[in-house]
Specification:
InterPro entries: Aldolase_TIM, DapA-like
Shape: globular
Largest sheet: 8 strands, parallel, barrel
Keywords: Lyase
Distance between the termini: 46 Å
EC number: 4.1.3.3, 4.2.1.41, 4.3.3.7
Radius of gyration: 18 Å
Helix content: 40-55%
Number of helices: 12
Protein name: Dihydrodipicolinate synthase family protein
Strand order of the largest sheet: 1-2-3-4-5-6-7-8
Family: Belongs to the DapA family.
Length: 302
């Protein structure tokens, strides 16, 4: 019987949280704090969790740490959430990570955009096909940041791999997204706005039904307010949330998104929820900018 992936599809059509990876004073993954932050998301009504996403500092984690983060997330989620594990790097590494996720009980994997200076469109298909075919029982979600990729290539991938069920689309161009989704098959995939709350209203208007979020680590209720407004088609209400989170997201996007994770961890630190440390090539927020982030977080009445 062919898998239909209804549970996975429903989980993608929601707030797709990208949890931070908190670090202890000695620089290791702070497992107790990590579990507490995951419980806070689940208690806040967030049920789709993506360990080893970019807000989780995927590229700064060792292979052992990536496995640990996967296991912690699956353990905490239990039957309360659906876990979408980030995988990537070279094909053997990505396949090994996907198989580990499957063995530990994950429902899906998100395949990070290939980190390679030379990505051909047919090579993109081959890369994702190798990973998807290794775990046919799991839903597979390509993370697309390549503006040159055509929708026809995604359709080609799914022709080979029916477990490619959703797309995290993170090209900052709503018109390109609308065209790409229709070229690939608007109803064939679950479309996730991969640039979080700032792009969610425009991408939902073009066919997205879920969005990723790093902000949700700080204020789960704010992200839930946006998804509920978008689901009901209440764009004025969604834009009220957009206005509420605008400055926070501008700070994250500044300097080529240099402080994307830094700002989230600074907000969490201001609330006493985790340490502010990030790993190179990210860097802690300067003292002069911390007060503004703390004020924003406090203003959300968390």
């Amino acid at each position: 019987m062919t898998a239909t992936f209804e549970v996975q599809r429903a989980a993608l059509a929601d707030v797709v949280a990208i949890p931070v990876t908190p670090f202890a004073e000695d620089g290791s993954v702070d497992q107790d704090t990590h579990r507490a932050l995951l419980r806070r998301l689940l208690d806040g009504g967030v049920t789709t969790l993506t360990p080893n996403g970019n807000t989780g500092e995927f590229y700064a984690l060792s292979p052992e740490e990536r496995r640990l983060v996967t296991e912690l997330t699956l353990d905490e989620a239990g039957d309360r959430g659906v876990v979408l594990v980030g995988v990537g790097h070279d094909v053997p590494t990505a396949v090994a990570s996907a198989r580990h996720a499957r063995e530990r009980g994950a429902a899906m994997v998100m395949v990070h955009q290939p980190v390679h200076p030379y990505v051909s469109q047919s090579g993109w298909v081959d890369y994702h096909r190798a990973i998807a075919e290794a775990v046919p029982e799991l839903g597979v979600v390509p993370y697309i940041r390549n503006a040159q990729l055509s929708g026809a290539r995604l359709a080609e991938l799914a022709d080979h791999c029916p477990n490619v069920i959703g797309v995290k689309y993170a090209v900052p161009d709503a018109a390109r997204f609308a065209a790409f989704a229709r070229d690939a098959g608007l109803d064939r995939f679950v479309w996730v706005a991969g640039l979080a709350e700032p792009y969610a209203p425009s991408y939902f208007s073009a066919g997205a039904t879920g969005f990723t979020s790093g902000l949700v680590n700080v204020a789960p209720a704010v992200s839930r307010n946006m998804i509920e407004a978008l689901r009901s088609g209440d764009y004025p209400a969604a834009m009220k949330v957009w206005e509420q989170i605008r400055r926070f997201e501008e700070l994250r996007a500044a300097h080529g998104s240099a402080n994307n994770v830094t700002v989230v961890k600074e907000a969490l630190a201001s609330l006493g929820l985790c340490r502010r440390e990030v790993r190179p090539p990210s860097k802690r927020l300067p003292e002069s900018e911390r007060a503004e982030v703390a004020a924003i977080a406090a203003g959300w009445s968390i």
